[in-house]
Amino acid sequence: MSRLQERVHRFDADRGWERVRPEHTYLHLMEELGEVARELLRRAAYKEGTPNLTEELADAGLLLYKLADQLGIDLEAAMLRKLEANEARYPLASSREALKRYLAHDDED
């Protein structure tokens, strides 16, 4: 388990929050992701205010680590395995071609 995940676990345990059910942590995570969306809209100037993406992404990230901890998942190890799988699944050459198609389509909008 990563140092960050261990620290999140300890933070919750010290406060008795390890008793919170994973379903509730998930709902809280969705709430925080909604706040990330709001900040992205601010960044795109669709909403007033100064974007605070760093804070909101940190909130969401901590809750993701908490959820993983509650479910007994070493999130860092799982993410590294997934990244390796993605590297094999999406080789550089074909990925760059797909990006060109995406950008060409995006420019049409």
TrEMBL record:
Example of a GO MF term: dCTP diphosphatase activity
Pfam family membership, one: MazG-like
Keywords from the named record: Hydrolase
Keyword Hydrolase: yes
Alphabetical list of InterPro entries matching this protein: dCTP_Pyrophosphatase, DCTPP
Gene3D superfamilies hit by this protein: MazG-like
Record-level GO cellular component terms: cytosol
Source species, domain of life: Bacteria
GO biological process, one term: DNA protection
Keyword Lyase part of the UniProt annotation: no
The name this protein goes by in its record: Nucleotide pyrophosphohydrolase
Annotated source species: Oceanithermus desulfurans NBRC 100063
